[in-house]
Amino acid sequence: MSILVDEKSRIVVQGITGKEGAFHTKQMLDYGTKVVAGVTPGKGGQKVEGVPVFNTVRQAVQKEGANVACIFVPPPFAADAVIDAAASGIEVIVCITEGIPVLDMVKVSGFLKGRDCVLIGPNCPGIISPGKTKVGIMPGFIHSRGHMAVISRSGTLTYEAVDQLTRVGLGQSTCIGIGGDPIVGTTFIDHLKRFKNDPDTEGVVLIGEIGGSAEEEAAEYIQREFNKPVIAFIAGQTAPPGRRMGHAGAIISGGQGKAEDKIKALQNAGITVAINLGVLGQTALKIMK
Amino acid sequence: MKLHEYQAKELLGNWGIPVPAGQLATTPEEAAKAAQTIAGPPWVVKAQIHAGGRGKAGGVKVVQSPEEVVSVTGSLLGKPLKTKQTGPEGSVVNQVFIEEGVDIEREFYISMVIDRTTASPAMIFSQAGGTDIEETAAKSAGQIYRENIDPAVGWMDHNARNLLYSLDSLPPAESMRAFMSVMANVYKAFVNLDCSLLEINPLVLTKDGKVIAIDAKITIDDNALFRHKELLALDDPREKDPLELMANEYNLNYIRLNGNIGAMVNGAGLAMATMDVIKMAGAEPANFLDVGGSASEEMITRGVEIILKDSRVKAILINIFGGILRCDVLARGVVAAAKKTGIELPLIVRLEGTNVEAGREILNDSGLKFLVAKDLAEAAELVARQV
User: Fold this and answer.
1) Is there a contact between B270 and A235 if contact means CB atoms under 8 Å apart?
2) Is A247 an active-site residue?
């Protein structure tokens, strides 16, 4: 098994006629992903890599039965694209777009509350269930099928982690980049809950970075009710402090966000933290043996 | 994008938040004129730099005569002001803001930010306004009140009541109305200007019952600037590091640090982790440079050029894990930069991901010398050997 997406997922690519949209549509098709439709307003009727293009997400859902969206729409229009997908009945929305205004994400977040729909991202590499489907921009060939889950706030750092896992012989069930923006659709905990119930997932690699308190919250959840081994890495241990915006950020987060605090919280929760990125794969192998 | 205090106050004034009368001066002559038009004494002369902590660093002076306005202005202009937030070299004062003095009864703190956890704007309010608000937040969190706003509904009067009726002693009824109006307008300004931070500290209650913003800090969400062309003119490039400025021009995310290993990485997370790896190998990164997910060949070339402009750099580590950014694009950009600049420093390249074979081929066929690392551990080792 895997979570959220598998070989049955039917993908609609929003922004399919753009440069990145078209390139990654081909990459996804090559991987075996069922890309069944594309959407670009005004370009309905065209084809990209043999995939039919529609003017609206609603048409793509009605005509091709799309149930997963992958969004490459430019930042000014991306919030509309996410809400459009959700309103059209898409179940899993993967938003790759980087640079969406944070107040637009406030709106999106409000709209999605209480809806039966999962948003991954924005500003993320997407989600892949190796050997089944990839919805996003990660290089497919570094993945291998197996039993490790990966959840990460970073894009390229996720590839690094996955590459190391594959090299030490640890395949993956599903890898998710949750996105690096201040407001993202889903958190570590949302996905940990799913991996907890996925019989195919035997362990989790969790990749965090400085800022916010998502890692601390995940640590608390894992200690309370997660029953599989977790290996973590935190980027930014040597990042210089400062570059803070006024007082407000510090006040609202109660001084959280530093790498050392995150590492401490994770270790206190019994989680193995790989301090050096170069040995993440080896560390995971030791724990999983 | 950070704004100066005088710019922030002008915007706040436009949104109906009372601010003291004030004028900008870039010369002592302009300061003399300002003292004639603004009611006083007293006057307040305030250095305009982006960093906070100006008061304690001597960048804010209360003066009693027009002559003092001129002399204080002269003593501030053109000189670096060193505050807690500027770093050791300080930040040069190019302009001062001259304001009428205000008779202060009480000082408050008010700000608005986006709360990540609830994905909503949050107003923070405290009766402990002034220069030590950070300490207050750390020591007595009970003095800090917070109100999250439902973005679908917007600001409601009860939001203001929740904050105001938390105060130990209430302002007079007239002033309560003024506070409610300021709070509602702070929310409006925050949302309409796409702020990531709007902070007024202190917000004061005057002896005659008025509520006035004495200092203001606004940061605009860079991602939203495409819909605020009118705000672009408020950018002050003098406040930024010249190399960072050049990087901005090409949409590169560059931060200058103190070491001697130049680094170019794609993705902020991997860039931070690469800096960690450099440090653990016993070297110091000279910079953080994230070329982003979808860099073009030209951006890569510019990135290398910017790193090379930093004379302290003794070696360069390029760590790319291709996703959207394809390794062949990266390789062409690096080769172009190397040829253009005639680079002589050791160049360590670690490539992986999309189109990695094509990328390696381009590097090999270029006739240039690269140290190619097969993984991150080896890259770190090669870096360590350069110092």
Assistant:
1) yes
2) yes
